[in-house]
Amino acid sequence: xxxxxxxxxxxxxxxxxxxxxxxxxxxxxxxxxxxxxxxxxxxxxxxxxxxxxxxxxxxxxxxxxxxxxxxxxxxxxxxxxxxxxxxxxxxxxxxxxxxxxxxxxxxxxxxxxxxxxxxxxxxxxxxxxxxxxxxxxxxxxxxxxxxxxxxxxxxxxxxxxxxxxxxxxxxxxxxxxxxxxxxxxxxxxxxxxxxxxxxxxxxxxxxxxxxxxxxxxxxxxxxxxxxxxxxxxxxxxxxxxxxxxxxxxxxxxxxxxxxxxxxxxxxxxxxxxxxxxxxxxxxxxxxxxxxxxxxxxxxxxxxxxxxxxxxxxxxxxxxxxxxxxxxxxxxxxxxxxxxxxxxxxxxxxxxxxxxxxxxxxxxxxxxxxxx
Length: 371
Ligand code: MG
Known about the structure:
Elements: E1 3-20, E2 25-38, E3 43-49, H1 52-55, H2 59-74, H3 82-91, H4 97-114, H5 119-122, E4 129-131, E5 134-136, H6 141-153, E6 158-162, H7 167-181, E7 186-190, H8 197-209, E8 216-218, H9 226-235, E9 240-242, H10 249-257, E10 263-266, H11 268-271, H12 274-286, E11 290-294, H13 300-312, E12 317-321, E13 333-335, E14 337-340, E15 343-346, E16 354-357, E17 360-362, H14 364-370
Parallel strand pairs: 5-6, 6-7, 7-8, 8-9, 9-10, 10-11, 11-12
Antiparallel strand pairs: 1-2, 1-17, 2-3, 4-15, 13-16, 14-15
The structure holds magnesium ion (MG).
């Protein structure tokens, strides 16, 4: 099974409600979708959203990186040589992690298809069921409480509360949500780099002393402020999770060794795909650190791949934050992984199991350029 070329398209899905964090507000998700073609007729699927404020990538940069650098590096390769192809992808260019992730996911999909086995089984197997949390966007307190109660009523047992806009108000937001739903759900906070280290310690001490027990606080300070992460981790009893502070395996080792976080948030779009996500899960296990599998605001193609990895590495990835597909008004991807509220179920079909994608607008020039 040799890689012969690529089709590239764009997939846009409107959101039920605007997604608001300390960094941005968006009303739809939009992915670059890649379909790797082979000489056997098998097609491998991958995708990447543009998250410029996190990875520095745009749809334009992702498409150009794939078309002019990454695809030429692997075109003609036999899918059986998975590790070699992964090395070629990772060495093809500096950074551009989401572009690399889209292609890696498609290659892993093909590799698992070539073995006629679901991807998670190829990665080591596991129970093909996951339970995800749901993100509650930053908003007025009443609206956030209403969203939280609604989520718990819909069966979510963990809620990820976005804060980081205004410290005093954030504390009130968390207390109000905690009072409303903490008997029925775990509460996670994601400050999306919105606080300073001293603000974080003050906020958490106040929350802790008022009886609010959080499952963790995610990325309270700027991603590049590793000293700030360490400062917070040392001073609060709430576990601290690193998101934007870690991308690849090397950064995870450094962060764990400097005790800059208690938990690692793995996202394929930060790691450059599945191979590094696996390494991070294994590294964390060596240090007895747990991970969460997260995703960007993205459609269910990349999130399906993340679900397969989370199942296979469940000993290390003990938390799942893969709610993005359920935030959309439709799921245009047919087959493979089923996203139904809090429940994620992986079907017993080869690879990622994607049968078709509706609403996909193909970019004809990409195909011409790749041939
Ligand atoms: Mg985060």
